[in-house]
Amino acid sequence: LEGVIGSLSLEQIYVTYLASAFRSIRFGLNEAHGCGQAIQLNYLIDQGGFEYNESTGKFRVNFNKIADGVRSLTREIMLFQGDGNKQGAEAFAQKYGVNREYTQRALGKLKGVVPVDIRPVYTALDEL
């Protein structure tokens, strides 16, 4: 079918997941999506599923550890919800819902080069 995304590999999905983290974080940690993505990114880095290379300044997916990291993250979140553990969830969010120095540097490279998001311009409205 034309215009339909074909099958994707699990590796492609994880790479897209990593890249999309930066898009959401750029909206700011005061936004739920930005903070949630920062939590996921930092947790998965700590679990080894995502890696940051200090010498190159690049991030990558560790395909040998990412599935276990995502499972562990999902388990943590589900336990907070299932147990009604508000204090645990808040502590988890405080620990992981931050922009670490290397993430700030990576985001800084995008400023002025890649827009935060598409900002549509509706010229038809101007003609009315």
Q: Outline the biggest β-sheet.
A: 2 strands, antiparallel
Secondary-structure element string: HHEEHHHH
Shape: globular
Number of strands: 2
Structural class: mainly alpha
Mean pLDDT comes to 88
Distance between the termini: 39 Å
Regions with little confidence, pLDDT below 50 for 5+ residues? none
Helix tally equals: 6
Widest sheet: strand ordering? 1-2
Q: What proportion of the residues is helical, as a percent range?
A: 55-70%
Radius of gyration: 18 Å
Strand content: 5-15%
Describe the structure.
With 128 residues, the chain is mainly alpha-helical. Helix content is 59%, strand content 6%. The chain has six helices and two strands. The protein has a two-stranded antiparallel ribbon with strand order 1-2. Helix 2 packs across helix 4. The longest helix has 18 residues. It is globular. The model has no long low-confidence stretch (mean pLDDT 88).
Distinctive features:
128 residues, mainly alpha, two-stranded antiparallel sheet, 6 helices
